[in-house]
Amino acid sequence: MGEAGAGRVLVLGVGNPGRGDDGAGRAVAQALRGALPRAIELAECEGEATGILARLENASAALIIDACASGAPAGTVHRFDVSQAPLPQAAFGVSTHGFGLHEAIELARALGQLPARCVVYAIEGANFETGAPLSPAAAAAVREVVRWVSVELGGEDRKEQAHA
Amino acid sequence: MVRKTIKVNYLARVEGEGAFKVVVRDGVVESAELSIFEPPRFFEALLRGRAYSEAPDITARICGICPVAYQMSSVHAMEQALGVQVTGPLRDLRRLLYCGEWIESHTLHVYMLHAPDFLGYEGAIDMARDHGDAVRRGLALKKAGNEILTLLGGREIHPINVRVGGFYRVPTRRELQPLAEKMKWARDAALETVRWVASFDFPDNERDYELVALSHPDEYPFNEGRIVSNRGLDITSDAYDLHFEESHVERSTALHSRLRERGAYLVGPLARYSLNFSRLSPMAQQAAREAGLGIVCANPYRSIIVRAVEALYACDEALRIIDAYQPPDQPAVQIEPRAGVGCAATEAPRGLLYHRYRLEADGSIAEARIVPPTSQNQASIEADLASFVGQWLDLPDDQLRHRCEQTVRNYDPCISCSTHFLRLELDRG
Lengths: 164, 429
Prior knowledge:
The structure holds 2 protein chains of 2 kinds. Chain A is α/β, with parallel strands linked by helices. Chain A has a single domain (8-64, 93-129, 136-163), classed as Rossmann fold, CATH 3.40.50.1450. In chain A, 32% of the residues lie in helices and 23% in strands. Chain A has 5 helices and 5 strands. A 5-stranded mixed beta sheet of chain A has the order 2-1-3-5-4, with helices on both faces. In chain A, strand 1, helix 1 and strand 2 (40-45) form a beta-alpha-beta unit. The longest helix of chain A has 17 residues, at 136-152. Chain B is α+β, with helices and mostly antiparallel strands. Chain B has a single domain, classed as Cytochrome-c3 Hydrogenase, chain B. Helices cover 44% and strands 17% of the residues of chain B. Chain B has helices at residues 40-47, 55-60, 67-81, 88-119, 124-130, 132-153, 173-198, 240-243, 269-276, 282-290, 303-324, 373-388, 397-409, and strands spanning 3-8, 18-25, 28-36, 162-163, 166-167, 212-215, 226-229, 234-235, 244-248, 255-259, 340-348, 351-359, 365-371, 422-423. In chain B, the strands form 5 sheets. A 3-stranded antiparallel beta sheet of chain B has the order 1-2-3. A 3-stranded antiparallel beta sheet of chain B has the order 6-7-8, with helices on one face. The two termini of chain B are 39 Å apart. Classes of the chains: A alpha/beta, B alpha+beta. The interface between A and B is large, with 51 and 54 residues. Strand 3 of chain A pairs parallel with strand 14 of chain B.
């Protein structure tokens, strides 16, 4: 993904750290701080769709990390190449509070603004209670995703080069 | 006996966060229930024992969509408890911050959630394929609102620059100028938005609500005013608890709020507009008239027009404030902690948001109470469902369910405030 050309490359951690494992995506972004090449933009957001959409604007590649609930065991990591197909999510929307990542990606696609390369890592959460810490399973998955993201971005290699 | 249940567990994977159920027997609506999840309860407990000065930052975290509202109700309540009044440019900057939040929140709901109902789309994504220009306009308008929050609030979500007594840092006139240019564009876009939504078809469903909102003699209400209604309520926020009560409802963890004397009431755009039309700016009043609104609106489906008019007003008001702005000498009023009780209501995009605090002599919080707009509207949302469903019973199930969802959507309810994790449907076949 690091080879995506001249455009912006974005790594985006999504979620609310105040709601237990909902903060897993943000934890990945925080762990990556200082560990990625400077040219890669590292950002965090709550997950409201139009805010994500604004971040995706003019990016040639994006790697997004979010928490999820699919019924799989806690700590499971799903990887979706959303430049090929939408996230497997049931449509939902009565409140602006439920308008999130799925909608951001599909709106970007409908408007022709989806980065050419766009990957979502989703970490299966166990506990979304207000004020709860990351569960041990989600915390382990966060460490795993940090490694995967570094590999996917060629971050380790580039970091070496940057120091050379 | 023919019994029909319309049930949507739209957050089925997150037990108890939000669902509705309507039961119809022999063509008559037997019951209509909406369950919502309310984060403020947790925050009330979290606030106890913390310093008064921490309340704006802590309460802003209750909601990612309307953090300014939570901050504003908390700072005004604290200032009342501490005997402080914030006036002049600091007060104007608070109104400007609120303008940003209204633009953002209203535009998000109008374009992304409500408009697809009227144009016959499943949602904003389908609508964007056919109405790309309108959706782009909505996204840019919402972003303009964000820019106010970023500049004044310190960042776009959960602003951190607000404090009891004022701000940590105030902008210079020069810093506000780029915002003025942006707001001129935004005002045009907001006017186009009003015209766009006015062209939609609306069901003819009015209800006789008790409308409750703040009212101020000189301005359309954001931060300040008496709490009034169209049935004679006219009180200061100190008297809120004498007239309103919250009660537990068995089926839900949420508290329902009612007027002690008269029961259900309505807060939010329809109430604000109908009780304060004459305080809208001339441009907003004219746009409302051209959009076919009277000076009172009691049709919840037309709330999309009212939101668009309020977003236009917010752009217009933002420009007025920026134009008149002269920076204050100090970014905040000096405060000495003391024991006391303070309450305040401000106008969140979804309606009246009431906070009450009791402080110890050292300024620590002994008690905190937060009544969000959605819990106040809950009884009215249920009454809307009960009142309107009867006329749709001939529709196929999926259309009937969609009408019910649209009816709930009129309120842009705050249902699962602050969780945004993906809800995945995985086919394991």
